[in-house]
Amino acid sequence: RYWWNPSDLRTSSACSTEACYAGNDDETCPCDGIAGIISLVGDISWSLMWTFPQQVATQLAVRFAGFDIDYESDDMTDVVGELANVLAGEALARLDALGVKATMGLPMVVRGTNLNLMLPDGTPRIHMRFSCDEGPFYLILGAREQA
Q: Helices 74-97 & 54-65, crossing angle to 10 degrees?
């Protein structure tokens, strides 16, 4: 059971672009590019990894920041971390509306090839594919209710 519908994801407020849910990927599908990772802790243990291929990241960064940002720069790390914060903030608000209490951790950003969100065995996860005018991006979500 999802606490949100993947087709509801909207990046328009953050990046002035519209994202469309394009289905789920194989759970072992690694991603190449840059990823923002953030967790929520409370009634659930929750982790999210939002991954952008290099070209998509640089184009979305322009839309988000309003100027060109070099893919290898610290500024790109900041942009991707802030995009993860925006998405996690929306998730936190939706969880709160459902009566699920959680707090958001600090975002982490990784860059490389074959990126994959490693979670403890048995943690349910879903790999979602999205597309926007700038290209594809991926969201990996893992969540477990606390005992």
A: 80
